[in-house]
Every structure is written in C-alpha cells, then in structure tokens.
C-alpha cells in the first residue's frame, strides 16, 4: 500500500502533529533535523511515544518510552490495535468509507490481548493502554519509523502493521498524520524513485507489467525483459551458484554493510569480474578488478529526492577532481562501448526523459526546481506538488487491512549464545564510514567501534570499561571495546556498524524477509568473551 517506501506526509507537518509515535528510528542521531521538528511539536504540547529497546537520545523527551523485546514489533502493534478496538477508539466512519478487509484485521488482532502481548514484548499492560489511548485520541497523530522496523525477517509485516494502525485510527490522508519512513541517505528516495530496484522502472512502474514494458521499449528503442531482476542478497547467492559471473557495485560497500561479512568476502573472491564505482577506496573496492572514480555531490548537476518526496536541484560547484567523472557520464560511456548509445549532452536532458516516462515526475522540470523544489506526485507542469498522500483516496482505491501474525526472529539466544545483538548508527558516523571517517573532526569524535553492554551483564561477565571483549556469533567474531551503559537492557548488546575493523556485520545473520529480501540486521544471538 505504501509501496514506494516514501513518507506519506511532509517533514514540516510533524511540528503540528499532536501525537508522534516513533518506532525503530534513532531519530535525533540519524535524522537530527527531523528530530528538531519533533521537539518543536513537543514544545507545542504534542505527546511523544518512543518504542525502542535502547534508551536512545529522543527517548529522554518521550512522554511514553517502551523497550520491546527485539523482533516483537508485530505483537506490540497488534496489542495496541486490540486495545483501540476493544475500547471503541477506532475511526469507524473512516474505516467504512475508505478501507476494506476490516473484519479480517479485527479477527486477527483479537488474538493479541494486552496480557499476552506484555508477555511476548516485555511491555507492561499499563504502557500498552497508554500508547493506544494517546495515539487513538489525539486530534492528529503521525507514525515515524526507520530501519529498526524494516531490517527484520518480518520487515514487511512490521510496515503493514503500522499501516493497519494508521488506517484503524483514520490517520492516512490527513495533515500532520500518516506513516512516515525516514530515508537514511540524501538521495535514497530518489534512487528508488528512479527504478534502482529489481522489480520496477522509474515511478514504481512494474517490470512484469506488459503495458509498462511496451512504453519503455518504445522510449528506449530496445526490447526489454519482463522478468524482475535480483535483489542484492539474491545476487550473492547467484554468484555462489555460478549463475552470475560479473558484478558492478556503485556507491555501496557491502563488505561492511551486508550481513555475515565472511560470506560476502568469499562471494566477492569468487565472482569472475568485479567493478566498483565510488569516490573513495572502500573495503569492497579492494576486491575489484576495475575501480571507476565517481564524483561527490559538489562536482555534478542533477537532482536529489529526499525523504519527504521533495525533488531538489543539485548544481555543480567545482569541476571534477582528477580522472573522476559524474556517474551518469561513466554509465553512458560504458553503454556506448557495449553497443547501446546514450546520447545525453547534459544532466538536464536526463531530467526531461524522467519527466516523459514517469507519471509522478511528469510536471517536474529544472525550471520549476528553483527554490524549495517540488514534492511528487507532480503529474503536470501546472501541478503544485503533493504535500501529503492519499488525501481523498488510496492509490489502489480503498486502503487494505492485512491480518498479520507475530513471528519470532530467525535466531534466538541459547546456552551457547546467551545474549542478543542489535545494530545501528551513532550520531558521528554514517553507514560504513566511507565518507564520515574521511573527516578528521568526525573521526576524532569517534575513532573506533564499541559494544554497549548493560551494567548487570558487565558484572556477570567480569567486564570493566578498560577491558577488550570478543563478541562471537555463529558467523564470526570481532574484538571491540565495551561501553557499559543502561542505554541497553540486560541481555542485549548494541554495536554501531560504521567500523570495518570491528564490523558488526561480521556477526549479523543473513536470514531474509521473504518478500522484501531485507536481512535481519537487528536481531542475532551472540556471546562475549573477555580478551586477555
């Protein structure tokens, strides 16, 4: 229903929301400007709800902070919906007028009474009731989430459950409401919008739709496959099986960012031909036969589309350094060499083509992007852009409720691996540190990785802050310094994944969500050993 993974509403709208439910998002560290909007809403009287196993920074500002057990988000959300329905707080008129399949949802969440959910999640019945009441009764309410929701074997189920909750209370298609995933990168939304996904062309037009295929055949003068491509994790398995012999990686560092690092490295050693296109030498590029130097944002023209669907101009400030070239020029040169000429003279011509084949970008031209940019959908040259989605109707007509059952994570703790690990970001570095660790000031701020460990666990294992520890999973081991803190509950470790020399993803499991094929970065079983 929210297939694009875009915010249904706008960043500025958060400031006027009366209730903001943050789940699976370390907002103030990963998205500080958006966190500022949330804090302004708090100053205006909004209730802030945070559901996160860690005591993250924004939790200190929360009216309600609950620490659900890792991987229990579906149970938590079903329990909240159970209470809302049992108390009669659901938006009956909205449900009747704008949704379908409500009876199925009602029957499904009836299996999640508060007492049962409390047992699964570790969240008290009192807190479950408080969240349900705050969210359902607020004049406007927004859900904010990030990869703490999606990076699970039940990631799709988690997102559908959030959609269920929002529709149950009539919070989709209204100002300062909605379901709002926060994108991590400046153009993460734009990349998906432009078809950097295996199953869609630009604007989320399906590869396996014959009419869509014919349109792109005509636009590009080629006969295109109607078969969706492989996801990143599928590619890794296909290389192992000998079905993929060459790999082209652009602006990505899977040796550090992908789960089960040892497996990723073995695959990259096996692939016959690896090309890496990036602006710095990465851990992944060290495995490449060919490295193509791209450019930074300051050396190219084009557009970025941010997390609120806002398309903005990027203007070249300096000429490319050395032999580096804009990514589109590199791709065009390669395409020319293999016999398909791409005759673009400048980035603006590519924008014109995007406009011609992508309905949601149909009214977006460079001339209209001076100033603050435009939010898609913007189908015509007169259209002002769209502040929030689904105002009068959903894309599919009626909003579809889904019956979602709780499923436990792929891996549980046991005698051999008694602790659970979760991973994420800190406020200093971004992703694999490819950019931020090049900055002397940021590197000085946080030079090495660390493992957050609860004081009770530290005492149990005889660990002090001066020690080094080895963290071991079924897939690998790393040595790292401990950070003894109440930010994590007893039984849980947290490791940021920015540091290649103590790579959290040497430990994480490569179990996948069956639909989105996203790995379960947020939950795996580990043990710790004190390093002599």
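Q: What amino acid sequence fits the structure above?
A:
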């Amino acid at each position: 229903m929210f297939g694009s993974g875009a915010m249904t509403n706008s960043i500025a709208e958060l400031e006027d929301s009366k209730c903001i439910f943050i789940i699976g998002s370390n907002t103030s560290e990963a998205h500080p400007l958006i966190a500022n909007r949330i804090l302004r809403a708090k100053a205006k009287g909004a209730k802030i709800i945070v559901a996160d196993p860690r005591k993250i920074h924004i939790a200190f500002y929360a009216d309600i902070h609950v620490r659900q057990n890792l991987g229990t988000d579906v149970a938590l959300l079903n329990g909240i919906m159970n209470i809302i329905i049992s108390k009669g707080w659901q938006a009956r008129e909205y449900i009747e007028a704008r949704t379908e399949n409500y009876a199925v949802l009602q029957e499904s969440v009836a299996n999640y009474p508060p007492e049962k959910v409390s047992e699964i999640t570790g969240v008290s019945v009192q807190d479950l009731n408080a969240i349900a009441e705050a969210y359902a009764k607020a004049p406007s309410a927004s859900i904010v989430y990030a990869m703490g929701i999606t990076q699970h074997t039940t990631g799709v189920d988690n997102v559908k459950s959030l959609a269920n909750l929002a529709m149950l209370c009539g919070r989709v298609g209204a100002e300062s409401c909605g379901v709002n995933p926060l994108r991590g990168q400046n153009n993460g939304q734009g990349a998906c919008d432009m078809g950097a996904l295996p199953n869609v062309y630009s604007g989320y037009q399906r590869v396996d739709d014959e009419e869509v295929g014919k349109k792109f055949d005509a636009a590009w003068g080629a006969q295109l496959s109607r078969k969706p491509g492989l996801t990143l994790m599928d590619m890794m398995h296909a290389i192992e099986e000998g079905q993929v012999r060459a790999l082209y990686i652009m602006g990505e560092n899977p040796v550090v960012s992908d789960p089960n690092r040892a497996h990723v490295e073995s695959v990259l050693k096996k692939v016959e031909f690896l090309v890496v296109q990036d602006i710095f030498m990465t851990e992944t590029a060290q495995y490449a036969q060919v490295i193509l130097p791209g450019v930074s944002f300051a050396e190219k023209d084009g557009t970025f589309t941010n997390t609120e669907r806002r398309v903005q101009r990027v203007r070249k400030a300096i000429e490319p350094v050395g032999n580096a070239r804009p990514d589109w020029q590199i791709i065009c040169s390669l395409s020319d060499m293999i016999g398909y000429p791409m005759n673009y003279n400048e980035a603006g011509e590519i924008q014109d083509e995007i406009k011609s084949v992508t309905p949601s970008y149909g009214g977006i031209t460079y001339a209209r992007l001076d100033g603050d940019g435009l939010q898609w959908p913007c189908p015509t040259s007169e259209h002002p852009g769209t502040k929030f989605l689904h105002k009068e109707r959903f894309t599919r007509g009626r909003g579809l409720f889904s019956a979602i059952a709780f499923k436990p994570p792929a891996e549980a703790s046991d005698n051999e691996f008694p602790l659970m690990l979760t991973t994420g970001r800190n406020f200093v570095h971004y992703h694999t540190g490819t950019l931020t660790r090049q900055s002397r000031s940021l590197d000085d701020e946080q030079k090495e990785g660390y493992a957050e460990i609860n004081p009770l666990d530290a005492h149990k294992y005889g660990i002090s802050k001066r020690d080094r520890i080895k963290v071991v999973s079924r897939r690998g081991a790393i040595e790292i310094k401990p950070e003894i803190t109440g930010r994590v509950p007893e039984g849980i470790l947290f490791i940021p994944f920015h540091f290649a020399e103590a790579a959290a993803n040497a430990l994480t499991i490569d179990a996948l969500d069956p639909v989105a094929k996203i790995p379960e970065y947020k939950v795996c079983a580990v043990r710790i050993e004190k390093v002599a």
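Q: And what stands out in the fold?
A: The first strand starts at residue 19 and ends at 23.
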